[in-house]
UniProtKB/TrEMBL annotation, chain A:
Family as reported in the entry's similarity comment: Belongs to the universal ribosomal protein uL13 family.
One Gene Ontology cellular component: mitochondrial large ribosomal subunit
Keyword Ribosomal protein annotated: yes
Protein name: 39S ribosomal protein L13, mitochondrial
Pfam families in alphabetical order: Ribosomal_L13 (PF00572)
Keywords per UniProt: Ribonucleoprotein, Ribosomal protein
InterPro entries: Ribosomal_uL13, Ribosomal_uL13_bac-type, Ribosomal_uL13_sf
Keyword match Ribosomal protein: yes
GO molecular function terms listed in the Swiss-Prot or TrEMBL record: mRNA binding; structural constituent of ribosome
HAMAP family for the chain: Ribosomal_uL13
Source organism superkingdom: Eukaryota
CDD domains in UniProt: Ribosomal_L13
UniProtKB/TrEMBL annotation, chain B:
GO MF entries: small ribosomal subunit rRNA binding; structural constituent of ribosome
Family note: Belongs to the bacterial ribosomal protein bS18 family. Mitochondrion-specific ribosomal protein mL66 subfamily.
Any Gene Ontology CC annotation: mitochondrial inner membrane
Pfam families named in the record: Ribosomal_S18
Compartment list: Mitochondrion
Protein name (Swiss-Prot/TrEMBL): Large ribosomal subunit protein mL66
Length: 178, 182
């Protein structure tokens, strides 16, 4: 085997570590992307019996964004097994308790329920803020592109830019400025 | 008698203060006005000063934008009802630099007689303004006692929320032939 072929062989079967910034991302949309990298679906050598999945590190999971009124409408169900042990937790209550749990459950539910799923989930690291342990961060070699643009707040835009921005609406002539 | 006097008083007050009456005055050209308050000793002077609009030079209108040759046939066949329809911009609720032009300094949407939009655009822009306010993207344009920082809001309001603009016109407008369908 030539040296180039050997490198190709290593690159094909090595686990790549990806980083994903969850800031202002929908967890249920981004779970479908994360799932592909976790299971190795993006590789041409993918096979269900082939252990070729990568590792994904999610940061800023505290700042995920849900759509519309989903923070108060989406409920997470849990049953203790005892009679009357059912409970429904709203998404904002769950996020208050553990800011990593919504994205974890979203990725878990996006995958098919088989014996492999628990082992695939072991390769997902979620951190609520920007701080990632050094032994995790040193392996990261790739970044997954975000699905949605992080919106810019009006007070973060400098005032000259906002003033010289092209205007669409002009006031009528007898309008009293407020 | 007292009621008559009050009615007469309110009539004169309307004649003096209401803008609609003022606008048909024949003497002076009315311009954009800013109300200024000054205290000179013990007297408070309130005056309306005409101000040139800061927006006129930056204004963009569809008739001033050069149009490619093949588009002119389309645009001349049907005249759009207002300037936003004519521009044909795809405005999202995150475009705060555009949405903040339709808003008072307290973040309240301006009425249609001032914006000059058609009904559909007024509704759409108004909904997108409230979306941007709920997402906390225009926190410098809010009432004084508003909780400006979204992370300090209560319960579900303190987390990031985004909106889908396709949900603005959800209600299906029935066509005339749908009348007999059940
Ligand atoms: Zn219009």
């Amino acid at each position: 085997m030539s040296a180039a072929k050997r490198v190709q062989q290593w690159a094909a079967f090595a686990r790549t570590w990806h980083i994903f910034d969850c800031k202002w991302q929908d967890p249920y949309d981004s779970a479908n992307i994360i799932k592909k990298y976790l299971m190795g679906l993006h590789k041409p050598i993918y096979h269900p019996m082939n252990d070729c999945g990568d590792v994904v590190v999610c940061i800023n999971s505290k700042e995920i964004a849900l759509r519309g009124d989903e923070w108060r409408k989406r409920a997470y169900f849990h049953h203790t097994g005892y009679p009357g042990g059912a409970s429904w937790t709203l998404a904002w209550e769950l996020h208050n308790k553990d800011p990593t749990l919504i994205i974890k459950k979203a990725v878990y539910r996006s995958m098919k329920g088989n014996l492999q799923r628990r082992h695939t989930m072991e390769r997902l690291f979620i951190y609520p803020g920007q701080e990632v342990p050094q032994d995790v961060m040193q392996n990261v070699t790739n970044q997954i592109r975000q699905l949605r643009l992080v919106p810019t707040r009006l007070d973060q835009i400098p005032e000259e830019v906002a003033k010289t921005y092209p205007k669409v609406m002009d006031y009528p002539e007898d309008y009293v400025l407020k | 008698m007292a009621g008559l006097v009050r009615a007469g008083f309110s009539l004169t007050r309307n004649a003096i203060f209401s803008t609609s009456v003022r606008s048909i005055a024949t003497t002076a050209q009315l311009n954009l006005k800013a109300i200024r308050e000054q205290t000179e000793g013990s007297t408070l002077v309130v005056e309306g000063v005409t101000v040139p609009s800061p927006r006129t030079e930056l204004l963009i209108r569809a008739e001033n934008v050069p149009v490619p040759a093949e588009d002119t046939a389309l645009s001349t066949s049907e005249k759009p009802p207002c300037y936003m329809c004519a521009l044909g911009l795809d405005v999202k609720h995150t475009d705060v630099l555009i949405l903040s032009q339709f808003v008072r300094s307290d973040g309240c949407m301006l009425p249609r007689r001032i914006t000059g939009l058609c009904r559909r655009q007024q509704k759409k822009i108004g909904k997108m303004v409230s979306m941007a306010q709920k997402a906390g993207l225009m926190i410098n344009l809010t009432p004084e006692k508003c909780k400006k920082d979204p992370t300090k809001r209560r319960e579900y309001k303190k987390f990031n929320t985004y909106f889908d603009e396709r949900t603005i016109f959800m209600r299906k407008i029935p066509k005339p032939e749908d009348r007999f369908k059940r």
